[in-house]
Here is the input.
Amino acid sequence: MVVSLFSEEQGKYAEGTIFFRVFNDFAYIEVNGEGFIETDQEWFNLLSNQFSIYEMIHLFSYSSEPDFQHFYSCMFPDTLDLDIVKNTFKSKSGYVENAYKDIAIELYEVPNDDYYAEYQWPLDIVQAEAAWDVDVPPAEQIIVAVVDTGVNLCNQLTPM
Here is the structure.
């Protein structure tokens, strides 16, 4: 399965969130006294007040890959129209390179990884593929952690 990042073909979108790429990163991002995001860039502060933006995250902030730099996500009330918010961001052409809806992606397939069966056999033991198809309401989401200790029972430092 191939998932295209930020593709806006037909699909479901997460309400109240957009992604956008700017030409110049923000020097700071903080929450102001009204609970909205404030930055060093006035154009954004105006949009933040207009759309009640209450959270913003610098995505891929540690990436040195040029294609992933300058991306942000922002959250606003989900009652606002996604297209209006996205298009308003896109209209700031001197500041915003592009803006995208947040696509809701659901994976209900076995990965097409050539090494999946060979190296991910524990997933078969715990019936992970069946679990991937279970629809769980957000309030009841389950977090699973796989702990791999990497213990080598034949370590040469350990006498047998």
